[in-house]
Amino acid sequence: MDPNDPYFFMNYGYCALDENNYPIFSHHFPLVYNKWKYQANLYFYILSLIDNPKGNILDIGCGQGGGVSIFNSYFNFNKIVGLDLNPPKNSSLYSNVEFISSNFLNNNLPSYSFDIITAIQTFEEFTSTSKTFTLFFKEISRLLKPQGSIIFTCFQLLNTDNNDLTSEIKSQNLYIDKEIDITKNVIYSVHIDSLRYKNNNEEMYNITRKIKEKLLYCSYKIYLLKSYGI
Ligand SMILES: C[S@@+](CC[C@H](N)C(=O)[O-])C[C@H]1O[C@@H](n2cnc3c(N)ncnc32)[C@H](O)[C@@H]1O
């Protein structure tokens, strides 16, 4: 886990809109995280939605471990697992942290073993067919302990209904505890990053501009689901 890795985080970030509280959680960050302030904020934000986060946590699509490093440095989990098709190469220095190289839809993790599962900007990878969409929630339901929580981010085109999502959630013995629209917070985060890149990184400046355009047609939501259990 190396904060200097250019892909340490790969999400659009979260920026609080209230200036008195701006940006949230920034007091947590040592200097090395400064570049990733809003991306790391998104991980802090999602965990702030759970009372007393503890136990075992799985980050699906952990990328190069940015989220896992936040879980490890600022929370008190017994076990932290980061799973990705392409996890960090150098294995972890921490005894309670494990990286697994696997397709989430075909993983070997034991059933009912996680209190919390997170999937940040990863859910879209599973929505391309109805089969992978169903399998995603089936696996979540298998891996969560009773009353466990899954938090995932989700892009939705404006004016689309989410009937498929809600019926799939229900059929896998899960229920929606919170559904939060953070589109403005994400646009604000991308906007600030875009200003930061304007004069020194043309490629990233163009990427962030395109993301902002895309977000005009989408909502960016966070879902917190709970498992009814066995
Ligand atoms: C946009 S990145 C998000 C990374 C990280 N969650 C973050 O917020 O910085 C999406 C990640 O999902 C991973 N991914 C895509 N399909 C996957 C699959 N079927 N199983 C596991 N990981 C997958 C990709 O390799 C990539 O690292």
Please provide a written account of the structure.
The chain has a single domain, classed as Vaccinia Virus protein VP39 (Rossmann fold), CATH 3.40.50. The protein has helices at residues 37-48, 66-74, 130-143, 163-171, 183-197, 202-215, and strands at residues 55-60, 77-84, 97-101, 114-119, 144-157, 174-181, 218-227. 37% of the residues are buried. The chain has a 7-stranded mixed β-sheet, sandwiched between helices. The model has no long low-confidence stretch (mean pLDDT 89). It is 32% helix and 25% strand. It starts with 36 loop residues before the first helix and ends with a strand. Residues 9-11, 61-63, 66-67, 83-86, 103-105, 120-122, 125 line the site of S-adenosylmethionine.
**Ligand set:** S-adenosylmethionine
Shape, principal axes of CA atoms: globular
Number of domains: 1
- SSE ordering: HEHEEEHEHEHHE
The fold-level CATH name is Rossmann fold
